Amino acid sequence: MPIQCDYHMHTPLCKHATGPMEAYVERAIDLGLREIGFSDHNPLPRGLAANVRMAEGELDYYVNRVLDLRFQYRGKIDVLLGLEMDYVEGLETYCEQQIAQHPWDYVIGSIHYLDPECRIGSWPRNFAGTAAELLVRYLELMRRLTRSGLCDIIAHLDVPKRAGYRAEEFADELSATLQEIKRADICIEINTSGFRHPELPQPQPYPSLPIVEQVLALDIPLTVNSDAHAPEQVGLEFDRIERWLLQKGCKQLARFDRRERASYPL
User: Fold this and answer.
1) Phi, psi at residue 175, to the nearest 5°?
2) What's the distance, CA 131 to chain centroid?
3) Helix or strand or coil: residue 160?
4) Pairing assessment for the beta strands 252-257 and 260-265 based on DSSP bridges
5) Pairing outcome for strands 106-110 and 5-9
6) Out of 3.30.1360.70, 1.10.3430.10, 3.20.20.140, 2.60.40.10, which CATH number does the structure's domain 5-265 have?
7) Mean pLDDT of all residues in 128-146
């Protein structure tokens, strides 16, 4: 059975995605997917990183739009309600309360910022410190996210490589992070957006395939997501990832329903 789900899709509410939500769903139907999920960037308080996420007052609207699409496309494809939650140090209670408000099918956890004021991105072009300092900080935050219990899926695990910071070069920190994810029984996504990011030295997913091999060795659950910011990006390079996973002996992928994880055969 081919890859059936794409759980990482955005909407124009985040201010950096394009196309009507219906177009994402129609694209998924054309690809033969059985489930898709919207997971737009969660609002943050005090206007933090407001230029790349929905406002607090738009969260209810977002939820209602996704639920309306679920009803509209019933019988054709299952539309799931997700959220991409930015883990920001000190906002754990805020995020916990936000998540409790709505019937999410899953929450994707991500690290986009290294500081509580969301001024230092996870792939900065002009970082004041060393590569070691950046990656140690990033992977430390990833472990804190994992321990928080706030998310079901870890997003784009090695995203600092967008600015040339490679997690593989810090094997001990990376290994500790993967072990933490294993203990927490959280899913990791293979995020195919790297195949469309020109700043990478070669087209590749997040995390890189050598890291995915470590994930498979630890028997950490996987899902494959496109991180689509436009309808044509839905299901990006799923065939390529499916072939690679089958070659590596992967036999199942994760799926979600009301934050309960199950699996389906690959």
Assistant:
1) -60, -45
2) 23
3) helix
4) antiparallel
5) unpaired
6) 3.20.20.140
7) 96
Digit-coded pLDDT (tens) for 226-257: 999 999 999 999 999 999 999 999 999 999 99
Q: Summarize the confidence of residues 29-55 as an average pLDDT.
A: 97
- DSSP letter for each residue of 208-255: -HHHHHHHHHTT--EEEE--BSSGGGTTTTHHHHHHHHHHTT--EEEE
- pTM for this predicted structure: 0.97
Task: Give 108's Cβ-side CA count (13 Å radius).
Answer: 33
Take residue 144 and report the two structure tokens written for it.
């804190």
Per-residue pLDDT at 1 = 58
For the chain, the domains span 5-265
**Among 118, 42, 114, 84, which Cα is nearest to 226's?**
84
What is the token pair recorded at 138? 């990033």
